[in-house]
Amino acid sequence: MEVDKSNIQVYLFNSDRPFHHYASGQLTVKKGTHYESDDRIAAYELLVCSGGKCQLITNQQVHQLKRGSCLVVEPQTSIQVISESPQVDLYWFQFLPKDDRELVDFQDVQTATHSRQQLSRLVNNVIIPEEYQVREFNRINTACLQALLLIKGNYYTDALPSYVVTELMLQITNDFIASLNHLTRTNPRAVEIIDWLSDHLDEKLTVRKLADHFGMNYRYVSRLIKKETGVTASNLIIQKKIEIACNLLLHSNLPLKVIADRAYFNDEKYFLRIFKKRVGQTPTQYRQQYMSDFLLNDTKTREGKK
Q1: CA distance 55 to 32
Q2: Domains, the chain, ranges and CATH?
Q3: Which of 284, 265, 267 is nearest to 276 (CA)?
Q4: What GO MF terms are annotated (predicted)?
Q5: Would you state the torsion angle of the CA atoms of residues 280, 283, 288, 291, taken in this order, to the nearest 10 degrees?
Q6: Nearest-angstrom CA–CA distance, 246 and 259
Q7: How confident is the model over 121-180, as pLDDT tens digits?
Q8: pLDDT tens, 178-205?
Q9: Which of 48, 166, 294, 295 could make an S-S bridge to 18, C-beta 3.0–4.6 Å?
Q10: Mean of the pLDDT values across residues 270-279?
């Protein structure tokens, strides 16, 4: 995560009481159009870019967003989105915390993660920077889709949508806190290897090939990665492939064979077996649990303007 530590602010929202879900949906803006809202609602808004690049302007302040970017917008804020790619896609979640929010400096949060006494003050909070680049975006992207699908359901109470939004923001909090640990890792070589693995994932990538690329022994590479992530290199490779598959299952109606290929599994039968083992459901069961026409034709979208 790249941040300007000199001026970034981090939101603390008490998560002991779930936030009230106000509204949510997806926004698509194509090049040549823009989106503009002067509604100035009395709710906070979480925006997550799922594809493309854009300028997002809030009260004259320009933010550059790309896939994986998150932005928290204060209540009563005007929003304008200008696409800088053929198309930009955003998830949006409007919410009302039950308690007052607190703003702290990024450096204070980073320092607190290394002090048990200071960290105790932050627990039971959603901790999210005003602007943040998610590290494990496949996971957060899936969480956003799952949240929108669950929110779309018909419930006798608004409690479930409120819990869903709170849980999503806690998942982003976990990603953020993990990124702070990433910044303070003592072994920069491990960071380099893990980042390269994420960027070069394909059906041919193995632990041996990963080790060969860095001129290292594959057993040493696996131990190094396990020390940093808690899982072996081979399990990390599978984990990232599964995350891609989950996203495709939720975000498309592609057949399982195509999803297996796009998630870099050489064999469809192996994909089906390992998915069931890791997720606890078959790919079809996973898709049926969450899939609806909403994913292909969202009825809660904001429209771009010419």
Answers
A1: 13
A2: 9-182 (2.60.120.280), 188-290 (1.10.10.60)
A3: 284
A4: DNA-binding transcription factor activity; sequence-specific DNA binding
A5: 110
A6: 9
A7: 777 899 999 999 998 888 898 889 889 988 887 666 778 899 999 999 999 999 998 888
A8: 888 665 555 778 878 988 998 889 989 9
A9: 166
A10: 94
| Alpha-carbon distance values, 251 to 100, 146, 244, 287, 292 (Å) | 35, 10, 10, 9, 10
Q: Which amino acid is at 293?
A: D
pTM for the full predicted model: 0.73
By the 8 A CB rule, do 300 and 26 touch?
yes
Q: Tokens 């609806």 belong to which residue?
A: 292
8 Å CB contact between 283 and 242: no
Place of tokens 């192996």: 270
The rounded distance, in Å, linking the Cα atoms of 22 and 44 is 9
Give the Cα separation of 63 and 79 in Å (integer).
11
Residue whose entry in the numeric block shows the structure tokens 């302007």: 57
Q: How far is CA 270 from the centre of its chain?
A: 27
The answer to which of 14-18, 182-186, 237-241 has the lowest mean pLDDT is: 182-186
Neighbours of 92 (CB within 10 A): 22
Alpha carbon 39 to its chain's center = 26
Residue type, 220: Y
Helix (H) or strand (E) segment spanning residue 143: helix 137-152
Whole-number mean pLDDT of the chain?
86
